[in-house]
Amino acid sequence: MSEEQIQEVNDEEEVVEEYHYKYVVPVRFQNTNKSYSFGTDEPVYDTGDFVVVETVQGIELGECQAPALSTDIYPSRLPLRPILRKATSQDQQDFEENKEYAKRAKEVCQEEIDSLGLGMNLLSASYLLDRSKVLFIYTAEQRVDFRELLKRLGTRLHCRIELRQIGDRDQAKIVGGIGLCGMECCCSRFKNHFDNISINMAKTQQLALNIEKLSGMCGKLMCCLKYENEAYEELTEGLPKIGAHVEYEGELYRVSGINVISGEAHIENSENYQTITVDDLREKAEVRKGVSIKKNTEGTRKTVTRIIKTETKPEELATTKQETPRVEEKKVEERRPQNNNKKRPNNNRRDFKQNEKPTQSSGNVTVRSFKAKKKEG
Q1: How far apart are CA 40 and CA 60, in angstroms?
Q2: How far apart are CA 282 and CA 244, in angstroms?
């Protein structure tokens, strides 16, 4: 490859510099709690203004959440998309009309889903501002082959179709509801993203491991388990687990309970029960592994079994090893039959007389049967 060809390739791979906007405006869209940043060169936008912006999906209508901020003070790491204009009365009228069109599009999509027998749960439908595209959001237990559905929807709606599958938590965020605390669900009220929740967080907070009580409307572990997890991790750092055996003031105890909020810990053994502070349990108590404390109950007898080991001298052990194989050889020779061709008797077959009953002979024990005595008149 020549130098001229290399230079041409490098020129093609050059990235065009992104345009630097002077101001940035946070904009929120309908049915979302998250704000997205858009760029502009004119600080004419204020909180509550409706603007028309260009997104990845297309042209949409949004609401400003704050006045225009200078990018010198609030720089953006990601490339910004522009704000096209302030929303006019016609834009707002189109936006309201799109809601009615979206209802009709949802009915059409549901009819086609039922006719094809697809395992889809349709949640919502929404149009872009210029009605060039409609977005359908659904949930499903498995992947759905909706190629035939796209063909039918495109024929009836005459626009671009997008089908998006979401999870259980996203469904709860869209539908909304009341949680166990009596307030609106956090996901639909203020949360912008979902955290990773594990059952270890409930164990750290010493909660009862009841999945029904720890689960939210979506069937997953509640998001609020994450809120206080860091505080509980700091409070429980260096403490033994409940059920651990510790040595405190020269005696062995078992940790029966810990309350980091009140700062108390409960330890017990067969003779004593104490309530100490969490700091004393962390600093003065030492964990003893492999130690078990048994509770003594009054009125019960203990059976003690002793195992006595007999020590044999090496001389006796040598003689026993030499004599045992000789004895076994003699026994084997005595038990050998003289004639190998002689048939062995069949012990399973036993012939008894009619009036006699069989007797079992196991050692020196004989089993006899007696007739019942006749009753005297």
Answers
A1: 16
A2: 13
Q: Tokens at residue 119, please?
A: 């395992």
Is residue 319 over pLDDT 50?
Answer: no
Mean pLDDT of the chain: 77
Q: Which stretches of the chain are DSSP H helices? A: 3-12, 89-116, 147-157, 168-175, 186-189, 199-204, 211-214, 229-235, 278-283, 314-335
Do 106 and 162 fall within a single domain?
A: yes
* Measured distance CA(236)–CA(228) in Å, rounded: 12
Beta-sheet pairing, 59-64 with 69-70: unpaired
Does 332 fall in a domain?
Answer: no
- Return the SS3 of 341: coil
pTM here? 0.60
> Residues 42-52: pLDDT tens digits?
888 989 899 99
The last residue of one of the domains, among 71, 87, 103, is 87
Domain residue limits at 59: 23-87
